Amino acid sequence: MQVEDLDTPVLIVDLDALEENVARYRRYFEGHRIAFRPHIKTHKTLALAHRQMAEGAIGITCQKLGEVEVMVAGGLRTDTLVPYNLVGRQKLDRLTALARQTRMTVAADSEYTVRGLSEAAHAGGVSIGVLVELDAVGGRTGVSPQRAVELGRLIDALPGLELRGVMGFPTPPKTRPLFQEALDLFDRAGLPHPVVSGGSTKCAFQAHEVPEFTEYRAGEYLVGGAGHMWGGTHTVAQCALRVITTVVSRPAEGRAILDGGSKSLSATFREGSMGHLVEYPDARFYGASEEHGHVDVSACAQKPEIGERVQVIPVHPCPCVNEHDELVAVRKGRVEAVWPIYARGKVR
Ligand SMILES: Cc1ncc(COP(=O)(O)O)c(C=O)c1O
Fold it and tell me: 41, 244, 271, 292: most buried by Cβ count inside 10 Å?
């Protein structure tokens, strides 16, 4: 089957581009002797997770337990990190069930989370690894180095838990002093930290500027996205994930309407745009309703016609993938595989 035979909107991944991304990030991380732990929340696809493991990953990162459950059910029992505070009985029960099947490490940034993890692990007769999350940049989760060492002491003392180190997200080079301070305090307290984990595609190629990192997490590196294209980490050709759409209306001279809207591309906007049109780089994807993409083509010398197919590079690949049941793997215009996105919608 050729790519032209696919009905639209359809989510595709270009295998040549994907393999180039795998190779260039692998070269970098191997060259700097930093272990690599891909984040599967970007693709949520078993076939790609297996492929990443075969390409030198030391394990995987999953943001949600539902993603881990899909991976384990699909035979991927590997060293798995959930860099997330798991709170609540239902999740802790699922975590201990998973810890019986695969090696689990989770993040924590509060005594509440740590005590919950310990009680569940102890009652379930399993051991769960814990990384203390540092408040890197971005104002999300994480604690100060001083608080991290207190949590480290607690994790080290409580049953069912194994203190494995520290993590942060995102971790540009300016976060180095934070990691240094935390590790120094851990050393002075005699606490182990075999894992020091950084993350984010945006600053992946600067990971060596934080030599304390033993491992690194990235997800979007694999397929890029218009956000990465504008940020300079991926060229158009390296943006492997695309939604092929059809122009269904040209209601005005400067306007083209696509059959892919927020339910195909996701509702993510960046720099006033929902994506990059590969064939029409001067077009501006300025808005969308659920099933219509609204594109300003007034700056395009030649304009798309009704019935024409247009490839859109989504701004943010992760929520875009989450909108689809299947990912079509394409090489040089030919369909090589259709992968079910089994972990889509796994938000718990
Ligand atoms: C904790 C954590 N680690 C790693 C990543 C991967 O970063 P990126 O999506 O930039 O590849 C994310 C992304 O959201 C994350 O939340």
Answer: 244
